[in-house]
Amino acid sequence: MSGVRCVVDGGIARITLARPEASNSVDMAAARAFGEAVDQAGDPAVRVVLLTGEGKRFCAGGDVASMMAAEDRSGYLNELAATLGDGLLRLTELAKPVVAAVHGAVAGAGLAFVLTADLVVAARSTKFLMAYAGVGLTPDCGVSYLLPRAVGQQRALEMALMNRPLTAEEAREWGLVTEVVDDEAAVSRAEEVAAQLAAGPAFALGQAKRLLRSSWTVSPQQSVTDEAETISRAIGTDDAARLIDAFLKR
Asked: What's one GO MF term for it (predicted)?
């Protein structure tokens, strides 16, 4: 009943947004359940996280009905945005790849899930929309930070101020998603990508994600130092020893 499920299998933590009757919009219970799912995904046995959504739409953002039903709407929305935002930030900070399969519609805070994912497979018919201004609200859950870094400032402003929708192909051209596939293939393709990553060198992939994600908030010198320290740790891993040995035997 929480609206989010997490199942771990074969090194993959599959987090499913499971409120299809509400277009997988996020209320307080779902936001808290998502945070718990991220905690599960943090287990060292998990090598990759896969995000999916049930029903016709991936995620319509925050649950507006729950906002309007709250006695203290401002207080409720502050807590909801902070709770979901914290879960998404912690997911971003996991040193392991995050793959998302999206379909139908991605709106409002739904964009935050896309921006938090490292690789995004979109069904061809998917529509992407900021949506906030359409209900008189403002971006939350890290969207205002991550969107201009993904698509550029002017494109992000166009989406926010003009409520401009994007097709899946436009989202790929703008850098919001990784690849576009036929509708029926989106989940299976994302599962393939997740399985490929789960079979790869966990330390190398997770740290490459961390280094790239953190590059926005550190100096060039800090980045170079971090890279040097990280690659020196990487060469001591079993995966590196195996892969380097195979490379040298070519």
From this structure: catalytic activity
